[in-house]
Amino acid sequence: MNDKLAQALNDQMNFEFYSAHVYLAMAAYCSDESLDGFANFFIIQAEEERFHAMKIYKFLNDRNRRATLTALGEPKNEYDSMLDAFEHGYAHEQQNTKRFYDLADLALNEREHATMYFLKWFIDEQVEEEALFDGIIQKLKRIEKDSNAFYMLDAEFASRTFVAPAE
Ligand code: MG
């Protein structure tokens, strides 16, 4: 692959590490609000993002390219509510989807088929991520004034675990 594509993949790897940072900050907000289930949801989300970053790290190595780590931006630490946090998460995922489309365009232009197939996994994953966040936003809106339902959702998220996807 050419330098431009290698650099773009490297940027994306760092963006995935930054995404982990974003979700861990959301987890910390939830923990501070004593919403341990929601905190767990975001801790697992952060683990997924780190897995995404490492998947790109490994791909760069496989293609004889060096993964170069950068400083991560400061994530947003304060939120108004769970709905606010999930809406930010959804916007973050939509931004990430656009990044993968740009990467796929670049790989397509370079006729870098190996990278295009590699990126397909992430593009599929983004469909799942957006659906996940959108679904939770809809639930949170529906149970807005129902604190029992809200705490049931918190309890449900307490059992979310990280399972590394099969290759
Ligand atoms: Mg990701």
Q: Which key terms come to mind for this protein?
A:
5 helices, binds magnesium ion
Topology, element by element:
Elements: H1 3-32, H2 36-62, H3 82-109, H4 113-142, H5 147-157
Helix pairs in contact: 1-2, 1-3, 2-5, 3-4
The protein binds magnesium ion.
Q: Can you put this structure into words, describing what you see?
A:
The protein has 167 residues and is mainly α. The protein has helices at residues 3-32, 36-62, 82-109, 113-142, 147-157. It is built from five helices and no strands. Helix 2 (36-62) packs parallel to helix 5. It has one domain (3-158): Ferritin, core subunit, four-helix bundle (Ferritin). The longest helix has 30 residues, at 3-32. Magnesium ion binds at residues 16, 19, 49, 52, 96.
**Rg of Cα set:** 17 Å
Helix content: over 70%
Number of structurally distinct domains: 1
Low-confidence stretches: none
**Beta-strand fraction estimate:** under 5%
**Global outline:** elongated
Pattern of helices and strands: HHHHH
Largest sheet: none
Structural class: mainly alpha
Continuous helix count: 5
Give a short synopsis of this structure.
The chain has 167 residues and is mainly α. It is built from five helices and no strands. The chain has one domain: Ferritin (Up-down Bundle).
